[in-house]
What we know:
Immunoglobulin-like; six-stranded mixed beta sheet; TIM Barrel
Amino acid sequence: MTAHQANDFQIKPAFWKKLNHLTETLNEPGVFTVLPGYEWSGNTAVGGDHNVFFRKEGARIYRCSHALVAEHDDLDTDAHTLTDLYNRLHDEPVDSVMYAHVGGRYANIHFDHDPRLEAAVEVHSAWGSFEWILTDGFPMRRRVGVVANSDGHKGRPGASYPGASFFGAYGGLTCFLMKENTRDAVFEAIRRRHTYGTSGPRVAIDIKAELTAGGTLFHRNPIAEPDCATEKVFVCTMGDIVQITDKKVKVSVSVDAPVGIESIELRRGTSTVALWRGYEDKNLGNRLRLMWSGAEYRGRGRNTRWQGRILINGGCIERFSPVNRLNPEQTLEQVGSKSVIFNTITTGNRMGCDIWLEEESSEVEVTTNHGALSLTLKEMDGKPVIMSAGGLERKLIAQRLPAGGLATSAHFQKEIEIEEDGDTPVWLCVNLEDGNQAWTSPIYLFQK
Length: 448
């Protein structure tokens, strides 16, 4: 499934007509789904960037402005705020859905929200990784799905490297859980929040909650559509909104990845209630993983620069390997037998390196422009050492790993307590050995 999402204030009438012709021509039901649509590019103060998708061609385009459009005969169709856009789309005969998008003008989820239209938030793209756009909504009972997109501005969906531009991450992918590859199925998957996103790799993820006493599953968000269809269920999956009476539920997780799985975080809201690793402390080897991540803030120019040196005292580097290094012109390299230097950026995503040490008793000194760490490998167990660095979730994490490759499959279960009031969002963050990540849409469980 793909779509072209041009900034609305640049789309001239002739180009909008051409886009509609292309999507209609290229869409092949059952094989390749192409959706017509555009990016509504209002400033953050009036709602921020949102992706608009139409079920079929022929819809009007409702721009935030005509800033770079010379033709002004349809100025009266502009939607200057997100609220205006919602109203326009409700009046539009062609069905539509929306994503809250984090680009240069990040989506402002506090400005307005219409669950009938906006069913998903974007947690990753070439702009970086943004868990906050999901978790900021939990206190407000925003029941949205998770998606990841490219937005690399290079016309390479599914292969969107950042290159030498201001982008700092590889473009993401979304998995839609559906029985057929059609526009109708895509729309239903989005509206049911049956999606998960990755920072690039194709990972198979399944999460289910078993409900002993059963529950009422809502096909739409009942806060916005109280008369929506419902059904009685005893098992639910990612994206489902289910009212239950159980105080606890058993959650089953299954992940199959094309690379090793570093860890899986089973989360309840913003808390990690179970951390899966495919190894025990006795399996730890001479590999030290150092990963830095985070951003400066939410808006444009959020890139964080990480500069520094890793120095090995009392030993040498046996082997060195960068992790998730995407910009070749940025320095991340071994210098001699005892040191590594780096000058890189992150934009919410994570990157770093693996160092195999000849002597586990060696002291490792990590010096960065955001702080420093000093540690000895033999004194580390499987628990990460974390240096918080301010900003927006900026951190440096040191972790001891087995010397060899990690397991590529994971299966586990965990019992989770359900809040008495409000929602209990249950979701996954999968951390892969190559530095990539994946996130599932939450299961939204509630008692009342």
